[in-house]
């Protein structure tokens, strides 16, 4: 069956790379995806059609407004921006009108808060597609995922007369911080899905390798903690102050000494801690950004409960107020053997793939697991695979860059999966 020109995938990837946007602010990105999908002839849902606002977390309203204004200033179609509204993300729904299974594929939209390298040896600098947004970069591979998704969308239109069933291409916002999957799942868009698949470029797997079913996805919760105390003069009246920063620092040490769990892996990290007003003022406020992870939901909940107990204890000790908010979540999952075997069979038939692995230890988190569990809870089957790519630097590093030849490999896995699931014979 005919295929897309690999150069088209690379061009799409580079366009997205040059204009990165973080979670819940991907207005220009979402609009460009919508525009491309609709130019192919796809029906596209967006905004609250694919996002349930009741489940949105980690949403910065001022950042959203700034991004909407920037998208308008960049010449993005205002009609499309109005359709998106205040919630990014979209889905192309490709219905053949012929009976068959419903398949959903997930691709991510957002970037990370990383300043891209200005080194002249960095390919995006050499080829003039480096980030034009200071402090933001596609340093994880989501730009490549979107390009693959658009390639799959074009393949569907090219073969629409040969397929049966329905395909939903989900372009998910806010994967970083694991914030976007839950509100997308709660929109109900997956509740009739029979087969679900998503993939990830890189992940320390070399080019020309496919890993069909990574294991040890960690359940995780992302928590913001805010301590509120009372300011006072640090020299004349320190006894009148309530030191919120001291409570936060004490909490940090307590969290980093959380016990491990005998039944599986655990992780904890304090990624951000700041507070106070000045060197001669007892700090009246402090904020922390924390994450806990566990090999399964039981272990993750243990870590969360222990973290909360220590934070509450520190607040009590320093006589300050504590407020907490969950900002994101992901879960573990068990892949379906039927899908795993299918991905392995497809990978073995791709000439450019030299190595096919059944599994690896992922040892990280991805909120695609929330989508997967939603599908599985309704009787569907799911797969998550890794598309190996030689990397110039690790994920979320300033010199990160993918092997662009692997975009076509990823596109081929997805399209071959659709062919085997939906081709009318």
Strand content: 15-25%
CATH architecture term of the largest domain: 3-Layer(aba) Sandwich
Assign the CATH superfamily of the largest domain. Zn peptidases
**Main beta-sheet strand count, sense and barrel state:** 8 strands, mixed
CATH topology of the largest domain: Aminopeptidase
The CATH C-level name of the largest domain is Alpha Beta
N-to-C SSE string, H for helix and E for strand: HHEHHEEHHEHEEEHEEHEHEHEH
What is the count of β-strands? 12
Number of domains: 2
SS class: alpha/beta
Termini separation: 14 Å
Helix content: 25-40%
- Spatial shape: globular
Global mean pLDDT: 96
Radius of gyration, whole Å: 23 Å
**Helical stretch count?**
12
| Major beta sheet, strand line-up | 1-2-4-3-5-12-6-11
Which stretches of 5+ consecutive residues score pLDDT under 50?
none
């Amino acid at each position: 069956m005919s295929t897309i020109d690999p150069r088209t995938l690379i061009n799409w990837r580079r366009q997205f790379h040059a204009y990165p946007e973080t979670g819940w602010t991907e207005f220009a990105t979402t609009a460009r995806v919508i525009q491309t999908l609709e130019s192919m002839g796809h029906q596209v849902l967006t905004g609250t059609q694919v996002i349930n606002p009741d489940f949105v977390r980690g949403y910065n309203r001022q950042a959203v407004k700034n991004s909407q204004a920037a998208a308008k200033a960049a010449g993005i179609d205002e009609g499309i921006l109005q359709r998106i509204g205040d919630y990014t993300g979209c889905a192309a729904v490709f219905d053949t009108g012929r009976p068959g299974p419903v398949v959903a594929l997930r691709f991510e939209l957002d970037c990370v808060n990383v300043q891209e390298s200005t080194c002249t040896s960095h390919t995006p600098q050499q080829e003039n597609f480096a980030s034009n947004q200071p402090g933001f970069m596609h340093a994880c591979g989501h730009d490549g995922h979107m390009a693959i998704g658009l390639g799959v969308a074009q393949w569907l239109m090219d073969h629409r007369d040969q397929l049966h069933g329905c395909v939903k291409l989900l372009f998910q916002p806010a994967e970083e911080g694991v914030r976007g999957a839950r509100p997308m799942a709660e929109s109900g868009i997956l509740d009739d899905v029979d087969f679900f698949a998503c993939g990830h470029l890189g992940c320390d797997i070399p080019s020309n390798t496919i890993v069909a079913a990574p294991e040890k996805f960690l359940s995780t919760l992302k928590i913001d903690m805010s301590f509120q105390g009372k300011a006072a003069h640090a020299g004349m009246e320190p006894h009148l102050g309530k030191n919120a920063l001291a409570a936060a620092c004490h909490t940090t040490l307590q969290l980093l000494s959380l016990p491990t769990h005998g039944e599986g892996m655990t992780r904890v990290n304090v990624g951000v801690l700041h507070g106070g007003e000045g060197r001669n003022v007892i700090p009246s406020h402090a904020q922390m950004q924390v994450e806990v992870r566990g090999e399964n939901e039981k272990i993750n909940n243990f870590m969360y409960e222990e973290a909360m107990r220590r934070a509450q204890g520190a607040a009590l000790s320093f006589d300050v107020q504590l407020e907490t908010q969950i900002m994101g979540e992901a879960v573990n999952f068990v892949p379906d053997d039927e899908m795993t075997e299918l991905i392995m069979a497809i990978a073995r038939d791709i000439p450019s793939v030299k190595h096919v692995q059944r599994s690896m230890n992922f040892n990280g988190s991805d909120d695609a697991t929330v989508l997967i569990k939603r599908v599985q809870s309704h009787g569907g089957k799911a797969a998550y695979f890794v598309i190996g790519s030689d990397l110039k630097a690790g994920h979320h590093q300033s010199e990160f860059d993918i092997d662009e030849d692997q975009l076509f490999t990823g596109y081929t896995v997805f399209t071959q999966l659709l062919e085997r699931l939906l081709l009318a014979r």
